[in-house]
Task: structure prediction
Amino acid sequence: MDPHLLRTYVTVARLASFSEAARALGYTQSAVSQHIAALEHDLGVPLLGRRPVLPTPAGERLLEHATSLLLRIDAARADLTRFTEAPRQEVTLAASPLALRPRTLAALPATGVTLRIMSRDTVPAAVATGEADLGLVDGLAAPSDPLRLPDVAPLTAVRVSEEPLAVLLPEGHPLARRTGLRLADLADARWLDAPDAGFPLDRLRAAHGGPAGQGFRTALRQEGTDIRTLTGLAAAGHGLTLLPASATHGLPGTVAVPLTTPRLVHRTELLHTRTEPGGPAAELARRLPA
Result:
């Protein structure tokens, strides 16, 4: 399967247009049509309907494979490029918002680092494909358990920190006087759905272990990585959110109650591929606090 043809197919399917895909890829529309025809001939099945431009059932199945296949190819190319390119003098650090604790920010050098805030799902891919030299990614885990990261490339993950979790409530909430909360107590509450700034609600459902797809109803959805907006929405009573305990200190109009059951922690890990000993990326990795 030619990866160039596969990339063209994914672009057409994403944009639902041959002409838009041609503009995005820098090809002629005729070349895009030829790529799709060649891929369909290779695989022996039609992949796209033409009016409208939508994937066939076989095309939908191919899309499930295509993203990871193309990412693996890009990661392999970036990995091999590292053997021939000169060591970078500046470092790009990709980080999910909740991975950036005050101690971590204080450890960054004054110059030579570009900090890129991304959703946690995109950080591993950024490191794998060379978009970033290092990554800081966070998530929910049982104590001392590693994070479940997508298998995008041979990445090394190193524990940076673990800390308790707390439920952020508005002042005056009926549960605000509790000394601890169980996740089961909150399954019927209304939650803020902020998968990039906070934790995805499906992760809370999985941790709760209730019926699939049930519980933890969305009160309001926030898109983007702004934690300040997320905590402001919680303070205004728009819904609950779960955060690492250190991110709940000193927030006006809120009360943070520790999560006691199940036993989960907020875990942060440092991701890297291959860093030259003594190079800028290795030095930055050394500076980050554990």
Remarks:
- The first strand starts at residue 91 and ends at 95.
